[in-house]
Each structure stands twice: as structure tokens, then as C-alpha cells.
Amino acid sequence: MKRFSLICGMLLSLGFASRLTAAEKPNVVLIVLDDYGWKDSGCYGSTYYKTPNIDKLAKSGVRFTEFYAACPVCSPTRASILTGKYPQRYGITDWLPGRPDGPSQKLTRPELPTGLPLEAVTLAESLKAAGYTTGHIGKWHLGGEKMSPLEQGFDVNIAGDHTGTPLSYFAPYKNKMRTMPGLEAAPEGEYLTDRLAAEAEKFIGANKDKPFFLYLPHYGVHTPLKAKADVIAKYKQGNPGSQGNPVYAAMVESADDAVGRVLKALDDAKLSENTVVIFTSDNGGLATTEGAGTPSTINSPLRDGKGHLYEGGVRIPFIVRGPGVGKPAVISTVGCSIDITPTVLDLCGVKSEEKYDGVSLKGVLNGEPLDRPAIYWHYPHYANQGSRPGGAIRAGDWKLIEFYESNRRELFNIKADVSESQNKAAEKPELVKELAGKLAAWRSKVGAKMPLTNFKYLPNPQAKDGTITLHSRSADVYGSMLRFEPLPHKNTLGFWVKVEDYATYDFTVEKPGTFTVEVLQGCGKGSGGSEVEMSVGDSKFTFIVKDTGGFQAFEARDVGTLMIDKSGRQVLTVKPLKKPGVAVMDLRQVVLKPIAKGE
User: Do β-strands 275-281 and 492-494 pair in parallel, antiparallel, or remain unpaired?
Assistant: First the structure.
């Protein structure tokens, strides 16, 4: 009763009202695929995946080419979709409950809530107050008991709980402790994506005579990668560096089939012309080998993927069709997941006195321009995919990324350089300062919590045999072009095309001494001969980079020795002195091997 009274009083005070009669109100179907990349559909350029239903939806609606998730991981974006606000306002800055802190990290994460607070006014609550029946079918991941979809405005909840991955992709959908909500009865071997589509069909059929809101956030295509064997068999393994994972492709095909079933259910019920259908994702595609030997997908030409603030991690598909939407079109207007709630309410004629961070895109959907100063990101966490804490802003064509460990800033012209390969920060210091100031002001405005110093930081500890292994994923880079390129692309320091750029590695020494330095380096034909200095404190040496026949043709080489006379934290610096070719080298690893006394 307390919760009921709270909702009623809150909704009345906020002034929710509908401008349309029940007969005029459009239905809403909001489909969200999990970890589905920007380029995972045919309509977005994939030639490997089969997505005829998504492509058909795109042809009949408005497709955005520059739409963004509010975060490079799931829970925060889901909060933004349902509230129209930046998730930082609710302290949801990572997937829930988040990745624990570790000794290899310089910073500790901000404390996370257990879920989306009940005080947040969700899209479901807004539409329910306007006379809509509301259904949640699929992944919730915004809180468990007493914070479920049923406490956040939904009349129906199928499969949604506190977890981010399903208990199983094949029935029975349970473990020793529990069963996924609403899926207790299921034929053995039933595929989860198919089941959620069937539940959506039931919901549409049961509510065809009244306005409804169906939120359908699928668990697919999130890891663990599990698909139907007969569908997997349709696909051949692709080439490294391109889309080509047959299991993921089969998951995509099943998700596309599910989209087709929902669209057909609307057709069969003669509801298509009066239903707003939205298709999107919660973050960029997973482009690392997390949970599998082969990456789920490749986001090229976008850089990196899920977990990263680069385009591959935050740019997502977004398609809208239905009443209030103009002629089919492909548009490049910048949009964000915070826009979904205000857009849906506007299309449904539902007024709200909530102050949204997002804006209604109804005008954009009808060919009107949108004057948007900027959109923002704040991800103060170390992602499972290898990224580091940071924030970002996109204003016009420019995007600034700021890394919180070192205050490093990277500036890209997204229109001219969608791959984010040309860092312009050194060329435009005033623009960097301006955008960094706006990002800082926004963080203050939304109450974004920053990471703190990790006083238990213990980087690259010395092994029992005395060796110290420094993988380049742990390196700090300085300059404008040098960067760590993660799997599946390179797993190395690369883009070392400027002699001014250099890298450092933090490491921890227990037993000081003299060490032989081994590098795992690759260098393309004609680019050998760079002179590189390695140093720890006052101890230093230089070596010449070897042409190995290719930047990915790595060769282990002993290149010199270093004396380390103190225990504790140390810093290894790798700095080019001369670069006769197009690039210095690709550097995957440095190993310090102790030299026994007397050798």
C-alpha cells in the first residue's frame, strides 16, 4: 500500500496526462538486443549476418546512423532508456553489481546501487498512468527483489530479474537455486529467444483491444554464445578481423526471426499502423574474446567495442516506425538512448512534468533539424573488455575522450574520422580545453561520482622466479597516435607512427638486480631500423628495431640489460629516438629476466 500510494501521489504531482483518447493512442513496442553492434545488421552494412526482418523494419521507418548508448555497458544504458535521464543521476555507472576492484588498477570504482531506485519515474509508469497496459519480456538487470519490473510500472514481467545473463539459453531455464521468472514451464530444449518472441506474441494478442507498451529487451546476443545447431551450420567461419563467428551469427539470425514474429503479430492483429516500433541495442558489439575463443563480432570501421568509449562501444543501431513518424529515411542526426522516453511520450501524446536529459526526436523523425549542444558519457570503471576509467563528450562533429588515470585527452573529428584514428588534441588545445570544461560541468550537474586512488595498487608484480612480465595492455601511452589495440585486432601497442610518442609500464619489484630485457616486437617490411631507448630510473640502453616482415610477425628478442637497485614500484619507459620508416614497431610484451650473480 505504501508503494501504491507513493506512485499515485507522485504521478498526480508530476501531472501525467494524455492528449489522446484511448482509441487514438498508439501502441508501443520497444525491442532492445543485448550487445548488438552498430554494424550487425544488413541495413547497417553487414554482409555476414542475415537480418531480413530488421532490414525490412528499417526500410519502412527512420534509421539513425549516429545514435548512441548512454554507456558502453548494459545496466546504465537500460536505466537511460527507461527514464530519459543520464544514468549517472542514479549512480548507475556500470553493469550491476559491477566488476570488483583489483590490485592492477590505479583507481577504485565508485560505489554502485543495487538497482534503479523506485523514485525514478520510468517510461512504463508514465504510460501506465496514461491508460496503457505495460509488459516487460526479457532482460531487466536493474535490480532484483522489490526492484523488479513489477515495482517499476510494468503489469507483466517475463524472464526479467537482477541478472545480466540468462540461466540458460535452452530450456529448462533454471539452476539449482531458481528459475527465470515466468519461464517455469518450458519444453526441453526450447531456445530462449524463441520463447521470448512467443511471449511477446501472446502479450500483443491479449491486449490488442487496448493501448499497450511492450518492452522486449532480449538476452541475445549476449555471451555465453549459444545458438541452435541447425542455424549455426548455415555459417562458415570468417577471416580474422572481420565478422565471421558462426555461433554469434546464429544468435543474430534467431534474434532477427524474433523481430519478424513480433512484426507479424502486429500485422495479424491489424495493429501495425497504430503501433510505434523501436529497435535498438544497449551498447556496442562485443569485439574482444571475453567468454569465447573468437570475438562475438567486429565493429569496423568503428574503433573497439563494448566497454570502450570509442565509437565501437557506444554507437548503436536505432530504427523507428509507426504513427507520428514521417516517411522512411536514413538520417545522421545525433541521438542518444536518453531520448527514447521523451520521444515515446511525445509520439503517444502523453505529457510529463519530468525534466529529462534527453529530448523528443519526434521532429527529427519528421525531417526537422535538431539543435543539440552535446551528449556525454561517464564510465569510471575498468571494463571486462580492457578499457580504463574515462568520460567523453560529443559536440557537433567533435568528440573528446578523457581518461581519468592520467588526465590524457584524445580529440577526434567523428564526421571526418569515424575510426577515431587521428587524435587532434595536440593540434587544437583550445577546443580540448573547451570540451573538457563542458564535460566537467556536466559531471557536476548530474552528480557523477569519480573513481578514487587505489592505495592497494600493485602493478605487474614480480614472479617467484624473479621475472617481470609487462604486457602492453598495461602500458600508459603518451603522444597523439600510439595506442593499445586490443583483441581481436592486434593485442599490442600499435599506431606508433610518430617518433614523439612513447609508452611507460608500472611494475613492482621485490628482488632488485640486473635484468635482461626481452621484447616481443613486430615490424613491417621497410620500417625496421628505429632506434629505441629503454630506461628504468638512471639505467638505460638503446636497441634497433628489427624488420620482422610484418607488424604482426612478432619475434622475441633480447635487446639489452637494466639495473634495478631498489624494491618497490618502478617505471619502465620505452621511447623512440629515430624512426626511418612509417612506424616504429608493434610491441606486444616486455619481459625482464633476472641475471644470476656470477653470470
Answer: unpaired
